[in-house]
Write a structure and sequence with these properties.
Largest sheet: none
Shape: elongated
Distance between the termini: 35 Å
Oligomer: single chain
Helix content: 55-70%
Structural class: mainly alpha
Number of domains: 1
């Protein structure tokens, strides 16, 4: 019972800033795009509050 609840809770949780940054960087197409995305992450693109 509790394992089902844990699975449901983990499925509904929002991704962390680190997970969003990682997914964004992993989506780069080439080295130039990766460097551009790294600069955006370094500027705090994902760390701003909504």
């Amino acid at each position: 019972m509790f394992t089902q609840f844990r699975k449901l809770a983990s499925a509904l949780r929002a991704p962390t800033a680190e997970e969003r940054e990682s997914a964004y960087l992993n989506g780069s197409l080439d080295r130039i795009d990766l460097e551009y995305r790294q600069r955006q992450v370094d500027r705090g693109m994902f760390r701003k509050g909504f």
